[in-house]
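>> Question from a student workshop board

For tomorrow's exercise we were told to take the sequence and the ligand below, predict the bound structure, and bring the output to class. My setup keeps failing. Could a helper post the expected result so I can at least see what it should look like? The ligand is 6-O-phosphono-beta-D-glucopyranose.
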Amino acid sequence: MSVFPENFLWGGATAANQFEGAYNVDGKGLSVQDVTPDGGFGRVTEEPTPDNLKLEGIDFYHRYKEDIALFAEMGFKVFRLSIAWSRIFPKGDETEPNEAGLQFYDDVFDELAKYGIEPLVTLSHYETPLHLAREYNGWANRKLIDFYARYVRTVFTRYKDKVKYWLTFNEINSLFSLPFISGGIATPKEELSESDLYQAAHHELVASALATKIGHEINPDFQIGCMVLAMPAYPMTAHPLDQLAARDYENHNYLFSDIHARGEYPGYAKRYFKEHGIEIEFAEGDRELLKEHTVDFISFSYYMSVAAAHNPEDYTSGKGNILGGLSNPYLEASEWGWQIDPVGLRLVLNDFYDRYQLPLFIVENGLGAKDQLVDGPDGPTVEDDYRIDYLNQHLYQVGEAIKDGVDVMGYTTWGCIDLVSASTAELSKRYGFIYVDRNDDGEGTLSRYKKHSFDWYKEVIETNGGSLQAPDA
Ligand code: BG6
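>> Workshop helper replied:
Here is what the output should look like for this input. Compare the format with yours to find the bug.
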């Protein structure tokens, strides 16, 4: 018996810079990704050269027909991809777009339409044009709002009949951890004050509201959402101060969904700013924009949870997705130290829904693992039962949240086809249902092979979640 709504959007998620390849083809400009060969936390180089070239995706740019056919075979209803801003405006501050870039996404959307797959498009997924980072210091500069507005107006207009679901910024709350990748801010992180970062975040929040306004003017049927990195923090003990520490941790993230959903800075943030000498400059009209152009839905990534304590020095810090936090002794971790917590997903869904009563979209979730290609009866495959187990457990909890009364629109697994890791630039950290023959040195045929999880997910979609198994008690 399925508990998922009939029109539930099942699918997979990707980002241009992690899977398209063709980083300098057909007029595309460089983005911040092209100068971070070791991943989001690594060094920033001057220009890409043969010696420091980042591992270039999996060539979706030339193989999109083959890949989309595989997504269709699994029964995808939705496919999340980002538009590489620097394919459309190579430097970011031009007045005219690059037609070849626009045509590429037209072709991709047409191909998706052939199979009835809805595109879900992230407008900015860690790929600010490099020129905007170098010349303007990225989102630290208010001028970025105008450049972004021109870009989103261009793509909203061009694809107004082809794309309905849009996300304004990927994991907008990651700006504090990754100012260069997330915000295109060239100033080294250690030289940025908290005020600088909150001001840059304000620019993104205003730009997000402006995009929502422009989008709804161009097509009132557009569904425009924000996208946050969700990571629940559990109090380490029942000590009231640990409870407060967990709340403070979560508020730092809620700030972004609160503003997107409620249209104003919350009281806890105003208090924090006051006590920390942070003054955000509002331009005329900012308050009204935020208030009047809130989002249609909330989307988020979910990989793991953390713990928080008022005395963090007494505990071990965990590894994890961008934000960090304390290790939870009750949870196991992936090979990269990300603590696996399916129940946390049910909690996140309930918390967001209680807070906003807006539809929710899980747009990233998955297990990065080292896969082994083996011979199977139908050719090479991967016996990725560990991935099936991870996804089954998480999806089971999505079902539980739906039974709790939460309105969930859809679910897209991260990296439905193997792609390059955002944090480490490895291809060997694989998430996909489809194995891509390429290693961390860029060697391989780029051939695609179905993993065991491919047929498993196909059945999940076919049965609208009815085939999911309850976890062992
Ligand atoms: C999210 C990002 O933080 O996590 C993706 O939105 C990223 O771009 C994903 O790839 C998984 O992280 P990683 O570092 O394993 O690629």
